[in-house]
Amino acid sequence: MGSYAPASEQEAAAIVSDAVARTERLRLVGGGTKAGIGRPAQDEATLSAQNISGVTLYEPAEMVVSARAGTPLAEVQALLAERGQMLPFEPMDHRRLMGSTGEPSFGAVAACNNSGPRRINAGAARDSLIGVRFVNGRGQPIKSGGRVMKNVTGLDLVKLMAGSWGTLGLLTEVTFKVLPVQERVATLVFRGLDDSRAIEALSAALGSPFELTGAAHLPAGLGENEARTLMRVEGFSKSIDYRLGELSRLLKRYGAPEIVDGEACAALWQGVRDVAPLTEPRDAAIWRISTAPVRGVALAQAVALNRDARWYYDWGGGLIWLATDAANDAGAEAVRAATRTHGGHATLVRAPDAVRAAVPVFEPLTEPLMRLTAGIKAAHDPVGVFNPGRMYAGV
């Protein structure tokens, strides 16, 4: 299998044009840390953005950063940290969960709409993404968006590319809005709540004026014997003290919480972000299920009626990370039945190749949505050279 690693957008465009002429199918990669997500590859060569690298714009006063797609995410984050800034949406590092190596790339954050626990407060990656450059399936360089949030007319290609998993084009540069790092971060930890009471407590906190930036529940057995319900707040230290006190009073019927600060707080949320509680055993299948927070408990329990499973909740109950045996369909029938009944979308993030080839990995689409998806794919990649079949068979 061939391999291409262009050093510029122009070089990438020429490679794609040649591939189109030969109908050569290309697997698009950045750092390769998420290569095991999606249906198994149906390609003949890899096209890597790894060498299309470097920060192209950083204006701290305007709170905007642009970098080429292959730039290591850590490099951008370090640059922002020097000026007391950060990406708002807390992107996940998939390496621990997927057992992968390499360096997460800046472009992949946009391509996968990679969003962590702070999404409940700051929105998803796509909400901060304001500009992209990419090479489409005709070998044409395309620019959309810019340096300000409202610099969009016509079809919003910026949002379309976010979460497209490399099926519509090779991202070569992305631009994000950034936010200041907060002076202090602290977490309230309530212990011993069952799932229903935990989500009830999280909903009450999220509905309060005290602005959570993280809301998760780890059932008993995931790292500790006792269940933990986590509520994170950020800001100036005096504001944090006040909000922690008010939240404790508001939620006193759920028990007396402890306060976790500093490095312990950061490590706690890094584990939630990177799915550390479910990483082992390595042969377990991992599902990522999004639903309405009030339906999360019933959905998880519906899966457990038909399949041995372990899980925890993020986003106040709206995101369920669920592990189950990878045998047969890796629980696809049970998971899809639960999302149909309770509402939601499920993605099979980790499973053997044979399972990912046999069952839908991303949420199955209705016939009208599949026609729309196929039409968008054909408009941007008419020959189907980019990541064929990665999200849906035949697309």
From TrEMBL:
The record lists the organism as: Methylobacterium thuringiense
The UniProt keywords, alphabetically, are: FAD, Flavoprotein
InterPro entries, per database record? FAD-bd_PCMH, FAD-bd_PCMH-like_sf, FAD-bd_PCMH_sub2, FAD-linked_Oxase-like_C, Oxid_FAD_bind_N
FAD-binding PCMH-type domain mapped to chain residues = 1-181
Look up the domain of life of the source: Bacteria
Q: Name one Pfam family in it.
A: FAD_binding_4
- For this entry, the protein name equals FAD-binding PCMH-type domain-containing protein
Give the matching Gene3D superfamilies.
3.30.465.10
